Amino acid sequence: MRIAIPFLLCFSLFGLMPPSSVPAQPPLKKKMIEFGWDRPYSLFIAKHIAEMQNSPFDGVAFCLKGHTCSFDTTRWEKQNLHPLVEPLEGLDWGRLTDSFIYLYATDVGGMDWFDDGQWETIVANNQLISKAVKESGCAGTIFDVEPYGDSPWVLEEGRTYDELAAQVRKRGAQYMEALQTHKPDMKVLFTFMFSLMTPHGSERDPVAWQGRFLERTDHYHLAPAFYTGMIEAAGPDVRLIDGNERSYYYESTLAFYSAYRALKQGVRALLPVELRPKYGAQVEVGVAVYVDRCYGLYSTNAEKLITTYMSDLDRERYLLHQVRYALETADEYVWVYTEKGNWWADFMPKPTDKEKEGDLFLLEPPSGPESFTIGKTNLPKNLESRLRQAREEYESRKGMNFRLEPTMKAAREKRAEALKKGEKAE
């Protein structure tokens, strides 16, 4: 039986319909961005953009080799960046119009929020990134908030939270000003912004919320202050996209809609009153799809992974569900994340020895933010066709011809039984 999804009803129930007194804006075309451990370098894209058109994506995350850390305290030189960006100038991106330069937030070189000299360097570096975005013709930057090393977001001994938060907010404003220097319509796609705090999104008392958030042990305590500074400094044409990495783990349709409402409404209470209208106007909701998890390829704590207890067919249905509701609840961007797979390897000729030695490829195994591997794709069978199917069904407003709930119920029961047996064995 074909299941028609009453989408307008869903939006009404979850408070997502715009007030009748405010005319609804035309919806943006939903776009899927490829972002994973297979991130290519800029020179790779310049050489192989024609082959990359065969992908199901509207954009790709890519690296400027050696220039990926947002908080690098070593000064970047124009002459080193120029040969990485010049091949992209005037490039016909084809269908990959919404591509993003990848940056991440690890504390490199002992970054100090209170060191003005360091921050002169960080601002100058990110002004170069702004220029690279403009000259390459890409959409903006991806900001990976997760630290792959020392975290810049942790609290410091000897300073109060209020003192730290005020300084980090100031640096967030400087960072945003740097990124928009040459690109006033800069887009910044975060792996997560305030979606990091959605479990606390219903807390209306900022003081009580702060206390609960600071009790957490995930080392992101200062990130909200940084986001606040970025919103404060963002020009009128800047768009900040909360990529909501937590959506990796959603196991129901309701979770997508609940997160959307929390990000559109709930977290505003945590912002300064004067910034709430600006948040509503310029911060958008993105959604992530974690391919490895959908297909049961995520090895860490596999016994807790819901797809471990699914058949191959049910995993494909789970993927279809995740992509469909990601498209339904994203304002524009859905980012498709892979670790074990490589979308670009089979599209490309085998690299020459000269290319292996140069800047086109990094042939080491995936181990960090700049990794790019050449070899087997390791992509799940039918993944590409299922992504295309989910998009086509979304765009045609076609209902899914299966119900996910029975599959999830059976998988949860199997998982509970397996975990119970594991506890007994211990």
Determine the fraction of residues in helical runs and give it as a percent range. 25-40%
> Strand pairing plus helix content: what structural class?
alpha/beta
Large-scale geometry = globular
Helix and strand sequence: HEHEHEHEHEHHEHHEEHHEHHH
CATH-derived architecture? Alpha-Beta Barrel
**CA-to-CA gap between the ends?**
44 Å
DSSP summary, beta strand count = 9
pLDDT below 50 for ≥5 consecutive residues: which ranges? 1-24, 357-376
Tell me what portion of residues adopts beta-strand conformation: 5-15%
Radius of gyration: 22 Å
Q: Can you tell me the CATH topology? A: TIM Barrel
Q: Quick one: CATH class?
A: Alpha Beta
How would you sum up the major sheet? 9 strands, parallel
- How confident is the prediction overall: mean pLDDT? 85
Number of contiguous helices: 14
Supply the number of structural domains. Answer: 1
Q: Looking across the biggest beta sheet, what order are the strands in?
A: 7-6-5-4-3-2-1-9-8
